[in-house]
Batch of 3 targets.
Target 1
Amino acid sequence: MAGVKLKGSKPRWWKPLWMSVLLTIIASGVVGYFLLHVPLERTVGGVALTFLMIGFAYYIRIRPSMKMNRGIYVLLGFSPIGFSLWIVYALSGIGRFLTTHLGPEISLIVGFTVPYIIGAFIGDWIGKRRNYRLPLSI
């Protein structure tokens, strides 16, 4: 029983890892501002966005829930799959056909909404097949 790890316990390197990650992010912001002459608002925005994304990644790994995992699958379907479908739409000539027959407004609306909506549905379908479990999760 001595070798059994408790469910809530963390490895010894957990705290030093997060401390080094935080210090590295802050140091990169300082280097960017002082040495690379990045404007202050971009530096602060980049560091804040990085902290936000690390917090989000920590949250989805430590406190996974069915709703959060479903949202992640929908967003992952929306972004890369939807963008890929948009590329296919743009290169296939469907946009030109719609512009010719229905007008440019309808073609733009269809081109910038339909592929992403289909991508979100594909992402949800993939998540449903995986029972909304993320890769590398228990």
Target 2
Amino acid sequence: MPVRFAATFGATETVERLARPGLRPAARAVAQAIPTRVPVHTGGVKRTYKPTLDEQDDSIHVHVGSPFWHWLEYGTQFNPAYRPVENAVRSLGLRYEARSA
């Protein structure tokens, strides 16, 4: 017998309201963890990582602050993908979902 899920009226709003106090601490933790996941050869690229928080209506966005982040996150023809942002998020037990702006 298949199980069917039916959302209770107001469930989404209730979960969002309960989770809202944890957004800022989680965003700060992610911002602090990102630079620790950047591989270091000379330290030049790591110094460009200056994460900032951008609070919007119902969310908080973490901006990496490095013009090179996509090289390390996704790799290049000559370098592997190190994924410092994804690894920082996952290291905190959070789910990582890449989304284009």
Target 3
Amino acid sequence: MTNYSHPQKSLKFFPVDPWSTVNSEDCSGAIYRTVNINSIKLEGFVNDWLIGGAVISSDKEMDVEVGFQGNSKLITALDLKVAGEVPADEKGKMILRFDPLFKNPKDVGDLKGVMRNWESIYEFPILHLKPNQSVLIWITVNTKDLPEGKWKGFLTLMKDKKIFRKLSVEVTIYPVKLPEDNPIIGHTWTVYKDDEQFARLMRDYGINACGYYDNWDMLRKVGFRFFRFSFPPSNWHPESLKATDDGIRYELKMIQETISRLNLKPEEWGIEVFDEPCDQNAWIFIEWVKRIKNVWPDARFYANPGFSATNNAIATIEGIIEPLKNDVTVWCPYIEYLYRPTFLEALKKTGKPIWYYTIEYNHQKPLRGGRQHPWLAWRDNLDGWAFYGLREYGKSNPWKDNWICARMYPEKTVSIWMEGLRQGVQDYKRVWLLEKNGLSREEIINQLLQLFSDKGELPWCGAEPESYSIVRKKLDELLIEKLVKTKK
């Protein structure tokens, strides 16, 4: 270990937007060295998730221990994480910086060679720092049990149990209560089994719907609001339609018993009989609906119209919506149909709930991806969103391979994409609450348009991550004006 006498002079905190796409070399560059901050200020409401960030950079090689001091309520609400960098592959596909996030990196094993600055964060909360190798510290505050008012604590850097550097963390909670749960449906294709801890973690990120054959009782206990059942298992094969009514009745029994046991309301469940139906195979979907309703007239159905890249065909109004509109009770079309106004309008005319879903690979995982999800649903006045998937890796290595659909890393390691999703859900809660209190969608959009000279900066138009902090600040101002100042 390098000997040093004045660590407080060598080590600095630099400001950085937590959603910044800068890399570690940039954070160690001259532009950041001109500012040395002493505090981070976070503002929000009850049932909020607040995120702040600071870059730690040192002129000398040293080990420092990261800690936090403050009121016990604030300490309970706070979570410290470090972010590392995933390097680009030979094709330059991995565009994220500071991904993934770790609460305790050493729990996931030795990832040297995968994480570019892994050596700096290997023993977190002990950071091994080197010149020109910065580390990003994320400060997350869950305000669910943090009363309104002002709270203050200190991020501390220690050596030999002695604090030699502090960063003040000031949290202001305004007297506005956001809904605790995601007000709309958030769904992802994954299996939870008996992992209640993981299910609760995902509910914190706005996911409240589930599918496949899973531990339904546990998920109901956690607070999931929609249950997507699959029937029949072999729905891709027309031969399965030869099943007898007694056979179908037997296979449906488990679904019926689950619905009864969990006391699910009609709007809280649906049966998927065919994945991504399109014009060329919709007849199988139609036939299965007919067979199921023959033995269970009250059955409800979920349909996710597919797209050409999957089924070599497309879903049209004539081929999908018209023949299915009387039986489908929840629509979840692929995202491309949001950009086909006539198709979306036809779906809305059915009067049924509408979600949308998307499939993205890791190299398509920009920071705004997760943050944008709830905003897209709000833009089109939809009832939910969904994506594939959470932690399905197949034979791929999620640390290195880009061609997988996973938003999580092993050992429940959260990606920044997921952190963006959670913040997008918190954004949605704000606009939802504003609408509940009389501010129209048009008024909210007009307020946001005034923030930018370029409409492309709007949250649903591919805004860069840094733009969301501007949007969030405006939404907070509107809520304070509407729910705090007007009551005084």
